[in-house]
Structure formats: C-alpha cells, structure tokens
Amino acid sequence: MPNTKQTGIWTVITSSSVGTLIEWYDFYIFGSLATILSVQFFPQDNPTIAFLNTLLTFAAGFIVRPFGALVFGRLGDIVGRKYTFLVTLVLMGGSTFVIGLIPSFASIGYAAPILVLVMRLVQGLALGGEYGGAATYVAEHSPANKRGFYTSWIQTTATLGLFVSLVVILLTRTTMGEQAFRDWGWRVPFLLSSVLVGVSIFIRMKMHESPVFAKLKKEGKTSANPLKESFGRKENLKMVLLALFGAAMGQGVIWYTGQFYAMSFIQKTCNIDQVQVNYIIVLSLLLGTPFFVFFGWLSDKIGRKWIMLGGMLLGVLAYRPIYTEMYDIADLGKKTEITGMHKIEREITAFDDEPSKQLVTITSTHTYSDSTIVKEVTQEIEGKPYGSSVKGTVLSTSAFWKMVLLIFVQVLFVTMVYGPIAAFLVELFPTRIRYTSMSLPYHVGNGIFGGLTPAIATRFFEDSKTAANPSGDPLAGLTYVIIVAAVCFVIGAIYLKNHYDSE
Predict the structure, then answer these.
(1) Residue 348: strand, helix, or coil
(2) Number of H helices, E strands in the chain
(3) Which residues lie closer than 8 Å to 401 by C-beta, 6 or more apart?
(4) pLDDT, mean of residues 334-358
C-alpha cells in the first residue's frame, strides 16, 4: 500500500493542485470575460439586463456545486478519492472547451445562452466534486500538526486559477488587439483549456489512492451510504450545519467580494479600462497569494477559528471605507479635464467583400490634470452606429497603485478565511464520510452564498438608482456581503471550537 513516504507529500500536493488549479481556471475565465460574453450570448436591446443575465449564468455554476458535492462526494467515499476527481477534471475541461465553440446569439439566437447555461451547470457539478476530493486527498497524506500548512497549498489554486485565467486573457487580448479579441479572440482561453486538462489528466493518472482511505477500504470499513451517515445522523448533521453557518458561509462572501466583486466593481461601476482592470487584479493576486500558505501555517500553531473569523470581521468593518476610496479614485467628477488636450481620431476600414462599404472607428480621448485618460471608441457604417461603444478610464500611475493596494488588502482578508478552511473542514468529519460531509457545507457556502455575490451586489446597485439619483449608490452591493459575513462571525464566535481532530 502506498504511503506518504513512498509518494512524497510534495508530489501529492503538486498532483492535486495542478488539476484543481486548471479546474478553477476553466471555471473563472467565464466570470473574467463576463462583459464580453454578455454581448456574444445575449440580446443587446438592454445591455444592463444582458450583463446581469451573464452574471446569473455564471452564478448558475455555483448554485449546482452542492449537488456535485453530493454526487461526487458519495462516489469519493465509496470508490475512492483518486478516480473521482479524475472524472470531475474531464467534465470540467470538456464543458469549458464546448463554451469556446458555441456560436453567438446573432448566429443561433436563444440557443446560444441555453447551451452556455447547460455547460455552466456541468462545470458547477464537476467543481462541486473536485475541491472536496483534492483537499481530502492532501489532508489524508499530511501529519496532523502540519495539516493547515499542507492543505493551504490547495487553497492557493482557486486564486491562482483566476490569476492564470487573467494572464491568458491579457496575453491574448494584447497580442491580437481589442477588436479581434471581442469578435472571436475571447474563445482562445476557453479552447486552450483542453491542452491544460490533458496535461493534468496525465499527471493525475500516476497518483496513488489516499493511504488512509485505502487502509479503510482494505479493512472493509468504508461507508455503504455516505449520504445517510453524513446527513441522517443528528451528531454529524449538526457539524455540517455548523461548518456552513459558522465558517463556509462567511468565507464564501469574503472570497468572492475580495476578488470577483472587486473586479466587477472597478470594471462596471468605476468604468476602468478592461486591460488595466486585468493588470490591477493580477498584481493584487500575485502579492496576496503567499498569505494563503502563511495563514494555513499559522492555523497549525494557534488554531483555525480566530484566523477565519478575523478575516470576516475585517471585511465587515473595512469594506465600505475601501470601496468608497476605490470609487473616489476613478470618479471623473473629482478630476479636472485639460480641454486643450481633447483629441478625436478617425480610422476608416473597407470591408473585404464590399470595398465601397466603410467602417469608421472614432476614438475620443480626454486627458485630466492627474494624468487620468478616458477613451471612448464608437463605430459607424454610413453614418449609423455599428455595435456598442466602448468607454474606459485609464488611471494615472499613482491611482493605479492605490487601486492595487486596496484590492490587495481585500485579498488578505480572503487568505485569512480561506487559507485554514480546508484543514478545518477535514478535521470536522471522520474519514469514512469525510469527502461527502465536508464538500456540502463548503459548496453551499461558496456556491450559493459566495457565488451569488456579484449578481446580488450588482442587482442591489441597479435597484439603488432612482429618478433623484440616477447614478445609484455605488456601495449598495456591499449590504448583502456585510450582513452574511457578520451573521457568520457571530455564529462561529459562539459555537466553533478552535481545533478539531477527527481521524
């Protein structure tokens, strides 16, 4: 029977992390490209509704994650960890590749958003089974006194997956140009996933089963009905509910606020140039990612509870000041335009199949005294608008780094709640039902409470717009996040212990 010494803990971590990172990459390229996908797959008679529908389609993948946790968690507790998350990897990679092939709304109408939704549901089911398997697999190879440290490497994969997705998008975008990327280049990151998944499958095929689970299976002590044991027994169901409402729920909203809502906020509410948005998020994630491992390591020393709850409390107290500052940094009403530097440029392009027909691209550039630049690009054919206009604010160097700092602080909150949580969840439940029991609260907390954060927050913002205040309250979306994190903090502070150790 393979053991930790034969396999090597770092081989185990690497094998698990590479596949999990790629699954997160597949999952997040959709969210990272939400603005473009809303144009590609939804009718454009109301761009705001189209964008909200894109966010809801993105959220649909999160909503079904608990069902994936039940299906694959049960399979993982009966058949084994290794083969279960091989299946989830294939499902995730296949569905991502298909999204890259789906024709646009202009080509096939409402069949486009329906197909995208189906693929998102498959992605959500697959991810629902992936995380619990990877975290359990690493934890079951780890000594108890280093479980937080070793499992924290798995925790980095969600953020690194987002990081890789943004880097791939950025490279594709800058290489082919903005117009080509919007027309068809956005498909490249989706199609590229097939190569990454192939590499990951090759790596995972060489993995051995978890030694703890293999021993349990050899002794005939695996659970015949993990679902019944996990949720039908009062004492275990109590721990499942405590894991959800005392930890995972708050962790979920902090995670998605600090990364996805932050990205959506500076892109849609602050109207910052999309390429610059990618740079801001990439740098923030790059600076923040090592802290996942730090807080995982620290949780081995002082316990998991107060590190996780501390991250939630900091979010509750600091989000409104942080987002107020983010909004002010990009607020053109507080800047002075240098009117003499206003430029309008026209570029005329003839159509290959109809030379007499010309596409006119008009770029209007406004420059402000703090070096902020605002560009608006519109297109016309024979004097009539063609497509939607693209407007973006390019921040000055100092404002850019202020924005990086503000999002980095939010990522620190994320690392506090997320770094120790894999070890925390693993220790709550016995080996025979661990995959099933830990997966459900994690994916309800992250998939439902966390995954809906961008869509709910955007809806709150849209609802805040009135006749008296047509711009709305830019901080309205934070209400949901703060309430959920505060409730979770109170429950966790009262009922959680600082250390659990179920074997």
Answers:
(1) strand
(2) 24, 5
(3) none
(4) 78
